[in-house]
Amino acid sequence: MAGGDGRFDVDRKGGHIRTTGLPLQKDREYLLTVMAADRLGSRSPTAVVSVVAGPRAPQFTNVSYSVSIPENTPEGQP
User: Fold this and answer.
1) Is 40 left (phi over 0), alpha (psi -120 to 50) or beta?
2) What is the mean pLDDT of residues 25-52?
C-alpha cells in the first residue's frame, strides 16, 4: 500500500485497511493505492481508496462489510 502518511495499514491476510493510531487530519483526503497479490506472485491492477476524515467518527449500520470479486473478473467490470 502506498499513501496515507503512515496512518493506515493493510492486514496482509484479510486485506482489511485500518488506521495505525496516528491522528487523522480533519477534512483531509487520504488517497491509498492498494494492490492484491497471491503467493505465486500474480498481482492485481492497483486500486485507489479515498478516505476523508470528517469532523466526527464514522458511523456504520453493520458491524462489518464484505465484497467478493471472482479471480478472473476482467478489469473495469462492476
Assistant:
1) alpha
2) 85
